[in-house]
Amino acid sequence: MFKSVYVIPKYNAETDPHVVMIVEAIKRTAEACRLFILNDANRCTTGTLIVAVGGDGTMLGAMRIAAKHNSVAMGVNLGRIGFLTDFAGYHDSDAVEALFSDIFEYSHVIYPVEARLMIRAWSGTESVVAGNEISVSRDKSDSMITYRLILDDTDSGVYRANSLLVSTPSGSTAYSLSAGGALMMPAIQAMQVVPVAALTMTARPIVISHDTSVEIQAWGGKMTARSDGLEWVNSDKEYTKEDPFTVFVKHAGTVSILHNKDWNYFDMLTQKLGWIKE
Questions:
Q1: Are residues 136 and 246 in the same domain?
Q2: d(C-alpha 241, C-alpha 148), whole Å
Q3: How many helices (DSSP H) and strands (DSSP E) are in the chain?
Q4: What is the mean predicted confidence (pLDDT) over 265-272?
């Protein structure tokens, strides 16, 4: 199934002994299975397995690359929780080599691949793709913003909140979860708009179809927009109702995620969220 592999080590931990051990074991196994080892993300193709070695942040980076090149992404969890990285507990090179030998030889038979929704946002000339969420908030401040929400060109009201999120189903276990959004099964082709610390109870999370166009007009000071927690637009301009900070969000297709052979969404939630089974 796979012809090449591209490995992404955890950011700022590339020299960590555990990270190095896993990365080197993956590359040795790829060589033994006669796969090309890529050192440039731009060389990824439909036959590339992109491996994130880290936490969900590393995995989100792998998902963005995989979405761009129509590749497959998977995650080896070295983070604290790991909603997106379900391969965990590999503490020696023999275990890593056994895992990837299995994946490279039999992935098309026993390892499920799931399509996850991605979203694209743009503001002015800047655009970005996200796997979890797009957020709009005040720049370097916890003060409230005022925003107008426009869905499919329909004015859906003006609200006040600390920030506003547009989340994917994958993002429903991230920032959206902390903000009171709904948990969404990954296979659902939908997004949700989630206000963070809204001023009124009428500003509630809303689940919308994946093909809904979202426009956010925000004002009340200097604004910033983030993609998967990473700042991508920041302006020193003081935005007003007459001249708002505007962000557009739409779906950006799907990305393929390789799961462990025994992966189950509800078992994952039970483990990660500490649900009780009796």
A1: yes
A2: 9
A3: 5, 16
A4: 93
Could you report the per-residue pLDDT of 68-79, keeping only the tens digit for each?
999 999 999 997
**pLDDT over 90 at 2, yes or no:** yes
Catalytic residue among 16, 40, 56, 92: 56
Write out pLDDT tens, residues 141-169: 778 999 999 999 999 999 999 999 999 99
Q: Does residue 162 belong to any structural domain of this protein? A: yes
pLDDT greater than 80 at residue 62:
yes
CATH number for 192: 2.60.200.30
Annotation marks residue 56 as catalytic: yes
* Cβ count within 10 A of residue 32: 12
Q: Are residues 98 and 156 in the same domain?
A: no
Quickly tell me which residue has 């895992």 as its tokens.
Answer: 99
Distance, CA of 218 to CA of 149 (rounded, Å): 9
Number of domains in the chain: 2
**Nearest alpha-carbon partner for 251 in 64, 119, 67:** 119
Q: Which of 178, 198, 180, 56 is nearest to 137 (CA)?
A: 198
C-beta separation of 78 from 54 below 8 A: yes
Do 122 and 243 sit in the same domain of this protein? yes
Q: Which domain holds residue 76?
A: 4-112+259-273
How many CB atoms neighbour CB 11 within 10 A? 11
